[in-house]
Design a protein that fits this description.
Helix content is 80%, strand content 0%. By secondary structure, it is mainly α. It has a single domain, classed as Chromosomal Replication Initiator Protein Dnaa, Chain: A (Orthogonal Bundle), CATH 1.10.1750.10. Helix 3 crosses helix 5, helix 4 crosses helix 5 and helix 5 crosses helix 6.
């Protein structure tokens, strides 16, 4: 699912910067329920870096309605898939 939304695989997300990586972190936190340290281990960064990037994304979503809509649509699709699987 992350690759479909961000256009990046996990290895690419690890080494990329920008909105795709931030969206992936926020999705892992909100939708998948991972904690900052768990996300950090996946991406090879510290929990504080995860917090900082998520904070940046939230502030950008406040300013950019398109980015907010993109995240909400993606989260809704992920949650729908989860409900189908259960």
């Amino acid at each position: 699912m992350l690759a479909g939304e961000t256009g990046l695989g996990l290895e690419e997300i690890k080494y990329s910067k920008g909105e795709g990586r931030r969206l992936a972190m926020e999705r892992l936190y909100r939708v998948d329920g991972l904690k900052g340290d768990e996300i950090g281990r996946l991406l090879g960064i510290g929990a504080s870096a995860v917090r900082q990037e998520r904070k940046r994304l939230v502030s950008r979503m406040v300013e950019n309605e398109g980015l907010k809509t993109r995240f909400e649509d993606f989260s809704a699709r992920c949650l729908g898939l989860t409900l189908i699987l259960i």
